[in-house]
Design a protein that fits this description.
- The complex is a heterodimer.
- Chain A is 84% helix and 0% strand.
- Chain A has 12 helices and no strands.
- Chain A has helices at residues 7-17, 22-47, 51-70, 75-96, 101-122, 126-135, 143-162, 164-172, 174-179, 184-225, 229-254, 258-280.
- Chain B is an alpha/beta fold.
- In chain B, the strands form 2 sheets. Chain B has a 6-stranded mixed sheet, with helices on both faces. A 3-stranded antiparallel sheet of chain B has the order 2-1-4, with helices on one face.
- Chain B is globular, with a radius of gyration of 18 Å.
- The chains are: A mainly alpha, B alpha/beta.
- Chain A binds chain B through residues 47, 49, 162-166, 168-169, 172-183, 186-187, 190, 223, 226-229, 232, and chain B through 54-56, 72, 75-76, 78, 80, 82, 86-88, 91-94, 97-98, 101-102, 104-112, 136, 152, 156.
Chain lengths: 281, 237
Amino acid sequence: MFCVNSPLIHNFHNMLEIINYQFFQNALLVVLLSSITAGIVGTYIVIKRMSLISGSIAHTAFGGLGMSYFFGFNPLLGAIVFSLASAMGIALVKKKSNNKIDTLLSFLWATGMAIGLVFIFLTPGYATDLFTYLFGNILLVSNFDIGMIFLLDIIILAVVFLMFNSLLAVIFDEEYSETRNIPVTVVNVILFALIALTVVATIRVVGIVLMIAILTIPPATAQLFRHTVKTIMITSFLITLVSGIAGLFLSYYFNLVTGPIIVLIISAIYLGGIVLSKMRA
Amino acid sequence: MKRKEIIKIENIFFGYEKDKDILKGVTFSVYEGDFLGIIGPNGGGKTTLLKLILGLLRPRRGKISIFNLPPQKAREKIGYLSQFKDIDFDFPITAYQVVLLGRVNKNIFKHYTKEDRLATDKIFQKLNIEKLKNKKLNELSGGEKQMVFVARALVNNPRILFLDEPMANLDIHHQESFYQLLQKLNKEVTIIIIEHDLDMIKKYAKEVVCVDRCRRGAVKYHGGELTEEKIRKSCSV
């Protein structure tokens, strides 16, 4: 039996105490909200193999983020505009020619970053904030951020619920979908827009640079053990949620930077999953 | 008895690049109940022709009508089995879901109805592949995958079935039984099949069209036995 003064109990008590703080509650809430969207949209990204497209949309978002930061708006607003615009652009170019997509993705990726960096460097006091957007800082979310992320969650959930079958049909087989008169380009635009909104909803957690990890690694892990799209989405959500919460506590107690810790936990679960699935087979 | 003309292709010109037409003045008709084999050399434009008929591509010149409608408007009546090139077989999906997805249509908010599930059940029954229903796509053998995609092509009760080299990924033993299935299906649907194996065409097809970019167009042969000679003739216009 533990004695009341045991350091373990004491630490555990401390650990729970932090939950009473508003900033920590906010962080937990954002982890929950972004796990939902990352789990769902990340699954689409992995099964359609769209990592590069997502990375490109995320880095383009940084351009808008930097711009609105400079002009004094909430950075997430600019990120939404830029990421949505890049999503549209990618979907339309993809319709015309699949070959040109690769160049477009690199162009958006680098140009978005460059625009963002220029504007953030032009703004006084850039250094810490720059770090925040590139690598995330979930402990600094404002109420406005939370409201916006909540709204994005609602939109994404509603679209996925309403369009589950047509999204899946187009992701699985575009050509056949076209012969069924499904408006493939419209569905693709919506799919990429979902990615754009998810990017914005997760910037606060892991930042632009590490975004691709939270979007792709949990679904890839889930895919090792789950074999339908819905179960992969749910499992992936749970992996992200657990990693996010664990990362929050670990980074708080060991004074580490949150985003990278969350990503490392996600990666560790992935490696564990691979070992486990190999052992099973 | 005169059979009903269901596809009319008139003087089609098409090329992917400017001034480089692959199809030059292709003209022929397909009649209800046809079992039409499309043959011709690789790169001759067989798949291109099929895509034009499906309305996935638009001809530069000429006119295609299906049931007197433009191709895009007639798609409801067409079942399509593509070459498997673009399908990801590791996609997390069961055989049943693949076929059910075939029911999704122009309504992007479509949710499945009882009718969709009934049609899906029925086609699994009809093709005698019910045991595959709950299998994952990557658990299926080549022949089984083929059957599942045929089921998807048939799940909307099409009047015409298009197949683009369905044998490309199949071993030789499956060929014969697959063609026997097509022959049975042909009692209810018109079949248009791209096939490079002339033996199969000779044995099972009732009509043949040769598509070759070097020639002016395609000529269709039908009626009576399809002999080597007739096939060769159709290819040497």
